[in-house]
Amino acid sequence: MTDDFQKSGPRRVGHVKEVTSLSNPIIKDIKALTNKRDREESGTFMAEGLKLVIDALELGWEIRTLVYAKAAKGKALVEQVAAKTVAHGGLVLEVSEKVLSSVTRRDNPQMVVGIFEQRWKKLDDLRPGRDETLVALDRVRDPGNLGTIIRTADAAGATGVILVGECTDPFSLETVRATMGSVFAVPVVKCSAEEFLSWQKRSGTQVVATHLAGAVDYRTVDYSKKPVVLLMGNEQSGLPDNLAKAADRTVRIPQQGRADSLNLAVASAVMLFEARRHLLTLDDKK
Ligand code: SAM
Fold it and tell me: What residue stretches are annotated with the RNA 2-O ribose methyltransferase substrate binding domain (predicted)?
């Protein structure tokens, strides 16, 4: 890794560099962010698109590097974002379309890409109030599912996503794409199953686990008494017994037809909007 990507130590900052070579070491480092290990080492990740970059900066995310296509030069919003990047001690790169395509691995890349510092919350940072809803995902494997769930959690008004056990990386390019920018809005926590179970006891939440063999129809639960954690199982194997047994409720979404189960992201969306509907009803009654 070059200095630009080290967590500590000197960084090349401030100036706009023109880059046309794919073998430029900074471009190589950015391309390496497709690997989880390189993302972890540098503590950074890539987000594509001007709107996402603007949103992220507005929400206070730290930008390390802004990359934009030559064709975007002079556009007012791009210039503003470039100025902000420099002001925050970041590096601005103006690159050829060929370089941008290779960085994003796309034929028609977005004109702007931002490299941001990753942000994780700790379980104990989560102190949900009564009107809050969180989603906990047990060993979620599919980046598209995780991205869609983060996006849906954001849209439903949930205040956090907890990744329990070995999960896919929320900062991979594919997940970030699927979040459509919500990765910047929804706090993400990662923990082991043991850490989750111990937090659950002291969190003051109602954990509602979803299970194909759930004893209760999800529509009959009152989600408004305590903050709710919706616990969702792994795509292949569902929830393990230890997590399901420790939950306050175990619910199922009744299905018709021949499908064994719903897709994880779809089931999460059904649960999120049902849980939030109870709170909206509560608001209406005020
Ligand atoms: N073969 C897995 C099993 O036996 O649980 C299917 C897992 S399903 C694709 C992924 C997760 O979505 C489940 O663990 C559960 O959390 C949720 N889910 C999907 N359909 C559901 C349903 N009808 N009722 C409750 N939860 C459901």
Answer: 46-122
Q: Using alpha carbons, list the distances in angstroms from residue 206 to 175, 198, 226, 238.
A: 28, 14, 6, 20
Check pocket membership of 232 for ligand 1, CB cut-off 6 A. Answer: yes
Of ligand 1's atoms, which has the minimum distance to the CA of residue 237? 2
How confident is the model over 74-117, as pLDDT tens digits?
999 999 999 999 999 999 999 999 999 999 988 888 899 999 99
* Reported pTM: 0.93
Residue 129 Cα to chain centre, angstroms: 22
- 220-274, pLDDT tens digit by residue? 999 999 999 999 999 999 999 999 999 999 999 999 999 999 999 999 999 999 9
Please enumerate in sequence order all residues whose Cβ is within 8 A of that of 24, keeping only pairs 6 or more positions apart, or say none. 99
Domains of the chain: 3-117 (3.30.1330.30), 123-285 (3.40.1280.10)
- Look at the alpha carbons of 237, 238, 242, 243 in this order and tell me if their dihedral is positive or negative: positive
CA of 19 from ligand 1 middle (Å) equals 48
Judge if the beta carbon of residue 262 lies within 6 A of ligand 1. Answer: yes
| Ligand 1 atom at minimal distance to the Cα of residue 253 | 24
